[in-house]
């Protein structure tokens, strides 16, 4: 049964933990969050238990949970710990609600070391990225593939949207009269208005013209980005895979030492750093505007935004120049005019 028929989006679990997982997700979503990442992780656990032929909760042992974790090869400690954390929270919740006697989770989190910095796309790299995306050919399952991914990546880089936010946009969320994008029910269940400039407006208008010209639905409720006649949205994994497998290899980007191989999420990092850089060049104190940037990006507090502010050589040069301007009078020798 589809979501449109009223069945919960987290339904479909088949293992002995099905009822417990559904109750756990329902309780968490009642707090106003989506928990889509937890949903995906618990589907992996559910499928693993089904594949192993587990028919009773009592059969879920510590050894079995260890085997599940080993079946999901995750090299980065952060990725491994994230999956382990979801599984541990599930079983902890089941214990607290007396659905099981004790948790079978016995694995320990891996030690996390300082991660590599995000790759910050400069304007030239971003232009090449968008050009490469626009050249993606159509295939049997995807018409307007190039214009679609060009528009998605432009929104991620130009407005700092999350991947999931871009994927779920509807036609009615694009207001070309006021140049405002409505991002609905984003992370933490928040909805926000994101203003955009004339270049972004021209891009969106062009994309909509192509979309409607290809016969796509014009209703305000229809998804902005969809290759499916039934209106199914493009998944976030598809967006990641197209970026990594189809677009990025065309760019030949050599990541500086200490930075990650470029990821699609780095476009959001690049937006934050680019905004800070423009403020420096315009003579604006970033500290005076950080709360505005935080609100624009959909963060609850500025500390979350600060995570995105990777210090680049270009940004450091601007900050140093600003410091020199402030400190110059104090650095003059005594008695200087």
Describe the structure.
The protein has 337 residues and is mostly helical. Helix content is 51%, strand content 3%. A hairpin with an 8-residue loop joins strand 2 (180-183) and strand 3. The protein has helices at 18-29, 36-51, 62-71, 77-96, 123-134, 145-159, 163-167, 198-213, 236-251, 266-281, 286-296, 302-306, 313-331, and strands at residues 174-175, 180-183, 192-195.
| Structural class based on helices, strands and sheet pairing | mainly alpha
Secondary-structure element pattern, one letter each: HHHHHHHEEEHHHHHH
Main pleated sheet: 3 strands, antiparallel
Low-confidence segments? 1-10, 322-332
Order of strands, widest sheet: 1-2-3
Short overview:
The protein has 337 residues and is mainly α. The protein is 51% helix and 3% strand.
List keywords for this structure.
13 helices; disordered N terminus; mainly alpha; globular; three-stranded antiparallel sheet; 3 strands; 51% helix
What is the element layout, followed by pairings?
Blueprint (H helix, E strand, L loop, with lengths): L17 H12 L6 H16 L10 H10 L5 H20 L26 H12 L10 H15 L3 H5 L6 E2 L4 E4 L8 E4 L2 H16 L22 H16 L14 H16 L4 H11 L5 H5 L6 H19 L6
Antiparallel strand pairs: 1-2, 2-3
């Amino acid at each position: 049964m589809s979501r449109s028929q009223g069945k919960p989006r987290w339904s479909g679990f088949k293992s002995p933990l099905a009822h417990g997982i559904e109750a756990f997700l329902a309780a968490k979503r009642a707090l106003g969050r989506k928990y889509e990442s937890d949903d995906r992780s618990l589907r992996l656990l559910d499928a693993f238990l089904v594949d192993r032929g587990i028919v009773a909760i009592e059969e879920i042992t510590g050894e079995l949970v260890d085997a599940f974790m080993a079946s999901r090869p995750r090299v980065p400690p952060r990725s491994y710990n994230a999956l382990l954390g979801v599984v541990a929270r599930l079983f902890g919740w089941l214990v607290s609600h007396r659905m099981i006697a004790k948790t079978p989770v016995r694995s320990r989190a891996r030690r996390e070391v300082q991660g590599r910095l995000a790759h910050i796309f400069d304007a030239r790299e971003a232009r090449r990225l968008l050009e490469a995306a626009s050249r993606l050919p159509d295939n049997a399952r995807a018409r307007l593939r190039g214009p679609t991914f060009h528009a998605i990546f432009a929104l991620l880089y130009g407005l700092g949207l999350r991947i999931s936010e871009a994927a779920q946009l509807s036609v009615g969320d694009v207001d070309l009269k006021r140049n405002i994008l409505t991002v609905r029910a984003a992370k933490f269940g928040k909805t926000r208005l994101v203003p955009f400039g004339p270049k972004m407006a021209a891009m969106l208008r062009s994309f909509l013209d192509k979309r409607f010209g290809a016969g796509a639905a014009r209703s305000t409720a229809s998804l902005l980005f969809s290759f499916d006649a039934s209106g199914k949205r493009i998944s976030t994994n598809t967006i990641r895979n197209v970026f990594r497998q189809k677009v990025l290899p065309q760019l030949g980007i050599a990541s500086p030492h200490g930075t990650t191989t470029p990821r699609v999420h780095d476009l959001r990092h690049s937006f934050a750093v680019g905004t800070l850089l423009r403020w420096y060049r315009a003579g604006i104190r970033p500290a005076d505007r950080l709360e505005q940037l935080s609100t624009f990006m959909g963060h609850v507090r500025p500390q979350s935004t600060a995570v995105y502010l990777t210090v680049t050589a270009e940004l450091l040069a601007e900050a140093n120049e600003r410091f020199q301007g402030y400190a110059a009078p104090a650095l003059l020798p005594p008695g200087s005019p």
